[in-house]
């Protein structure tokens, strides 16, 4: 795998993910975050948190593309299948378990879970494109 293409695919997918994160965690059901305001951190500026989140989006995409390459998956379908399995194995159980113990509105949990699905699908599309 060409490292330049790998880096470009990871960054492109990471940038796309930052926009979908904004939609799923910032816009969709935004009012539901206020259902339990005491659980959210009070910050003077959200800039550093947003920057860290965007960087983690790129890392997530790079790791997923690397996993597809290591598993010698070629094409869109195997990458999308892996994305679905990863989604069911990691973020869904984590988010649901957190919701069982932390006061988070169910629609916020749903939007975060959907955001993770879209994040992994975008990484799978990048991997499918790169590795096909």
Number of domains: 1
Which class of secondary structure composition applies to the elements? mainly alpha
- What is the strand content? under 5%
Computed CA radius of gyration, to the nearest angstrom = 16 Å
> What's the helical proportion of residues?
over 70%
Compute the separation of the termini in Å. Answer: 11 Å
Please tag this protein with its features.
globular, single chain, 132 residues, 5 helices
Q: What do these coordinates show?
A:
- This protein has helices at residues 3-27, 47-70, 76-89, 91-101, 106-131.
- Helix content is 76%, strand content 0%.
- It is built from five helices and no strands.
- It starts with a helix and ends with a helix.
- The protein has 132 residues and is an all-alpha fold.
- It is globular.
- The relative contact order is 0.21.
- The chain has one domain (3-131).
- The longest helix is centred in the C-terminal third of the chain and has 26 residues, at 106-131.
- α1 (3-27) packs across α2, α1 (3-27) packs antiparallel against α5 (106-131) and α4 runs antiparallel to α5.
Quick rundown:
Helix content is 76%, strand content 0%. The chain has helices at 3-27, 47-70, 76-89, 91-101, 106-131. It is an all-alpha fold and 132 residues long.
């Amino acid at each position: 795998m060409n490292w330049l293409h790998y880096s470009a695919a990871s960054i492109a997918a990471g940038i796309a993910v930052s926009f979908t994160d904004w939609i799923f965690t910032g816009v969709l059901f935004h009012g539901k975050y206020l259902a339990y305001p005491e659980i959210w951190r009070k910050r003077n500026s959200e800039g550093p948190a947003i920057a860290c989140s965007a960087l983690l989006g790129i890392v997530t995409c790079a790791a997923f593309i690397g996993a597809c390459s290591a598993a010698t998956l070629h094409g869109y379908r195997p990458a999308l299948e892996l994305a679905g399995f990863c989604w069911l194995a990691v973020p869904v159980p984590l988010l649901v378990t957190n919701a069982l113990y932390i006061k988070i509105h169910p629609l916020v949990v749903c939007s975060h879970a959907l955001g993770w699905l879209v994040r992994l699908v975008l990484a799978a599309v990048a991997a499918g494109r790169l590795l096909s």
